[in-house]
UniProtKB/TrEMBL annotation:
Belongs to the FPG family. This is DNA-(apurinic or apyrimidinic site) lyase. Gene3D superfamilies: 1.10.8.50, MutM-like, N-terminal (3.20.190.10). Residues 207-231 are annotated as: Disordered. Keywords: DNA damage, DNA repair, DNA-binding, Glycosidase, Hydrolase, Lyase, Metal-binding, Multifunctional enzyme, Zinc, Zinc-finger. It comes from Polyangium fumosum. GO terms for biological process: base-excision repair. GO terms for molecular function: class I DNA-(apurinic or apyrimidinic site) endonuclease activity; damaged DNA binding; oxidized pyrimidine nucleobase lesion DNA N-glycosylase activity; zinc ion binding. Its EC number is 4.2.99.18. Residues 236-272 form the FPG-type domain. InterPro entries: FPG_cat, FPG_N, H2TH_FPG, Ribosomal_uS13-like_H2TH, Znf_DNA_glyclase/AP_lyase. Transmembrane segments: none annotated. Residues 2-150 form the Formamidopyrimidine-DNA glycosylase catalytic domain. It holds the Pfam family Fapy_DNA_glyco.
Length: 283
């Protein structure tokens, strides 16, 4: 599932191969963008779950993979591993072709307009970015006082990069009830949550892939369980509903959360409800 770490891995894989190269062709949703031919790729950057490819004439290619999209990098004459019909964006430079498959969001935008862009300009601090602003992230999270914390963490205007996997995993690690409002937690608890989220996401974003070749930047097993014992998986709770908790043995659960009804995995024993705090918040 593409979350912030996946996008940073993609940017790290594509950037060194594309930056400085002239565009031979750009095809967006099966339409050729001829005005970019000959222009240089100047930067490839991840912002949360978004990938941005900058060109020297001021245009940016913005893609968002949502649940099923992927970026692959191929040699000029190499056979693609997916059907060309599913290609959303194709960027060809000398000897290389970068292909984005099945991206629900793929568009061109002017770099000068990014700051005010509805999708990019409103993003919260990126947890993986070198200049991550913890104080700003905490302040944005605090503004979600009455919202369930598991739902608030998924709001990309609060912090950018967290998806279903990391939401469930970081809340379990910090033993926080996903269904209690943000107001139920202290600044110290929220700060520890952000620190752990950043540490584990950076570690996964920079880990070496297990394979090379097309799509190799996806060939990494995401790990959130530090110090896992033999026989334990790399994730503590995600997609493990009905299985015993590695720490206490209670059966893990999954509940839908928020307007989008996203899945939240948790341990009912390690993450006990904060009922008193919920009543206070409602009052």
């Amino acid at each position: 599932m593409p979350e912030g770490d996946t996008l940073h891995r993609i940017a790290s894989a594509l950037g060194p191969r594309l930056v400085g190269q002239p565009v031979r062709a750009l095809v967006l949703r099966h339409q050729s963008i001829e005005r970019l031919a000959g222009h240089l790729v100047t930067k490839v950057e991840a912002r949360g779950k978004n990938l941005l490819v900058f060109f020297d004439e001021g245009t940016v290619l913005h893609t968002h993979l949502r649940m099923g999209g992927a970026w692959h990098l191929y040699g000029e004459h190499e056979r693609w591993r997916r059907s060309p019909a599913s290609a959303t964006a194709v960027l060809a430079v000398p000897a290389l072709v970068a292909v984005c498959f099945r991206a629900p969001v793929a568009r061109l935008v002017r770099a000068s307009l990014l700051a005010g862009d509805a999708a990019i300009g409103r993003l919260g601090p990126d947890l993986i970015a070198p200049a991550f602003d913890e104080a700003a992230a905490l302040a944005r999270l605090r503004r979600m006082a009455g919202r369930e914390i598991g739902d608030a963490l998924m709001d990309q205007q609060v912090v950018a990069g967290i998806g279903n996997v990391y939401k469930s995993e970081i809340l379990f690690h910090e033993r926080l009830d996903p269904f209690a409002p943000v107001s139920a937690f202290s600044d110290e608890e929220l700060a520890r949550l952000l620190v752990f989220a950043r540490r584990i996401m950076v570690a996964n974003a920079t880990a070496k892939p297990h394979a090379s070749g097309p799509g190799a930047h996806h060939g990494h097993t995401r790990t959130t369980r530090e110090g896992a014992r033999p026989g334990e998986g790399p994730l503590a709770v995600y997609r493990r509903a009905g299985e015993p908790c590695y720490d206490c043995g209670a059966l893990l659960e999954m509940r839908r959360q928020g307007e989008a009804r996203r899945s939240t995995y948790h341990c009912p024993r390690c993450q006990p409800p904060r009922r008193a705090a919920i009543r206070e918040a409602r009052a």
